[in-house]
Amino acid sequence: METQSTKPVLMTLIIMLTILASCSYSVSEKNKTPEKIGVILPLTGQYAAMGEGGRNAMMIHDLRNATVIFEDDACNAKKGMTAAKKLIEMDKVDALITFCTSTSKAAYPLTKGADIPQIALTETYIYENDQLFQMMPPSHTLFEELGKIAGKRHHSVGLFYTLEDVNSGPYGNPSSIRKGVEGSGSNLSLEIAVEPGTNDFKTGILKVIKAKPDVLISVMFKEDHLAFLKQYSEMDAEDEVPLFGDFYYEIDLDSFKGIEGIGHFFNGTISTNFKQQRTIEFVRTYKEKYGSGPPIFSEYGYDAIGMLIETIGAPNLKESLLSDTYDGAQGKIRFNSLGNIDGEIVVKRFNGTEFEEITALS
Fold it and tell me: For 82-128, what is each residue's pLDDT tens digit?
């Protein structure tokens, strides 16, 4: 897909990377008691590919010793709440897996009330010592670092984002970027927020061109971001204000050919586009079963269901999840006391052909 010109454009790619370990789970002989696991994924809507990828990854496991019930929320909080109520109150599941932030937040009071573990595959921005676990390391430190780097390199920084759950609140992406930019001593000179599903970004892009910050950080998702990038390119806006921060554009790395920039990698999560030794087995197995590579975040689903399978028969699922270490597609996974996986930032530069690790930023 041609969304950028081939001339050098400064971009920052935020990509999720992990140190991966063996992708196979062995269920001990003593844990053979059937367990009900509810799973809510976006199987329709603009995130359907990610939801399908997560479900496909889960189905790689031997699920004969567990009853897994899938529900669709289309990344809609109301649909997610309805699905969670059904799974908890009618199906009586022993654990719940959620994907979208909006659904994870909506289901949280229900799993707390029912006192059953909830594993959120992506961010929740809830940091409590309770039944909620999060597979994706909290990214606010990542976005704050992005803001710092942009602020150190440039006098003025613009921010363009969509009004979604992950972009709201004190731990939301824009707040973290703002904190990083301002903490670097630079100036966040422009902020533009639009509703998700916006088809016409031209008005906002014209504001960017008029304000002319040194660089623009864009934080959008899937179709919104692709539409934004296309219109930004068609209006030759990158000639006026280069992009610095192309979140979620990492799904198709071929689109970056010929473009130079910085990539930020968060150890503890994964992009299966990268050929790390320990992800090869998971990627190969997925390709053999489904004919194509796993979409981003598929590994979260694979590991979440695998972790629950390993706890089948445990007297206390929550305590088992907190105390045990698991080997999966993300490597050795261990939750901290708040139910999160800790990660660290690794910085790499995309040289137009491949990514190379760098230890310092000029």
Answer: 999 999 999 999 999 999 989 999 999 999 999 999 999 988 888 78
Whole-angstrom distance, CA of residue 115 vs CA of residue 256: 45
Query: Distance of CA 170 to CAs 7, 130, 152, 178, 179, Å?
Result: 36, 21, 22, 10, 10
**Whether 221 contacts 196, CB under 8 Å:** yes
User: What DSSP assignment string belongs to 130-161?
Assistant: SSEEESSPP-HHHHHHHHHHHHHH-SEEEEEE
If we measure between CA atoms, which residue out of 48, 18, 5, 10 comes closest to residue 255? 5
Q: How would you classify the pairing of strands 243-246 and 215-219?
A: parallel
Q: Which two tokens stand for residue 177?
A: 């970027």
pTM comes to 0.69
φ, ψ (nearest 5 deg) of residue 350: -90, 115
Cβ-proximal residues to 130 (8 Å cutoff; 6+ apart), any chain: 112, 339
> What is the C-alpha separation between 101 and 104, in angstroms, rounded?
5
- Percent helix, strand and coil across the chain, each rounded to 5? 40, 20, 40
| Calpha distance 150→158 (Å, rounded) | 10
